Amino acid sequence: MAIRVLLVDDQPLLRTGFRMILEAEQDIAVVGEAGDGLQALDQVRALQPDVVLMDIRMPRMDGVEATRQIAGPGRDGPAKVLVLTTFDLDEYVVEALRAGASGFLLKDAPANELVQAIRVVAAGEALLAPSITRRLLDKYAGHLPSGDDPVPDTLHTLTEREVEVLKLVARGLSNAEIAADLFVSETTVKTHVGHVLTKLGLRDRVQAAVYAYESGLVRPGAQ
């Protein structure tokens, strides 16, 4: 079945460009468009898309709040949010990741990257650009708790190996890189990541990375 995509951006020309790129793919169907966050919420309810391509800065309701209402805590709908940003270090991206976004993409990314990003997010494989996400968390460390608070009880549900994997996910390593670092198979890493997400009640790798920073397990700038 085709991946159902909703385009959300306040610039009609950009939406048209994205539509042309995506509709050229046999496995992707653009089911609707919205010009702001409020319209996006209505369209998500009406169209039930698999992936929402979400701009951040829009009138009436921005992409962060729209993302929170679509994919935030307590939301169990199928839609995953892929955030679009003009700058790779946009401060709002951190808030969008916290709000439940499954990843983000630069607006000037090549067409093939946009298509692949949508496929990856639809498949539940978030954290599209680990190195960029790590830079974001490091740069905006002031937005995160200091780490002086007690470790959350939920962290104690993880095994020692799962904690290791969570730390490496937070530092931007891919499954293949984690496998090489821990001298295990990539399949084993995927299994550990799945256990981490289930035990901590997290939606994807992005939320796992943010959780690791917010809990103090990983400190900004740590190697």
UniProtKB/TrEMBL annotation:
Keywords in alphabetical order: DNA-binding, Phosphoprotein, Transcription, Transcription regulation
Ranges where the Response regulatory domain occurs: 4-122
Residue positions, PTM 4-aspartylphosphate: 55
Stored Pfam families: GerE (PF00196), Response_reg (PF00072)
Membrane-crossing segments per the record: none
Domain HTH luxR-type: 151-216
GO function terms (MF aspect): DNA binding
One GO BP: phosphorelay signal transduction system
Family matches, as PROSITE patterns: HTH_LUXR_1, HTH_LUXR_2, RESPONSE_REGULATORY
Annotated protein name in UniProt: DNA-binding response regulator
Organism (species): Streptomyces sulfonofaciens
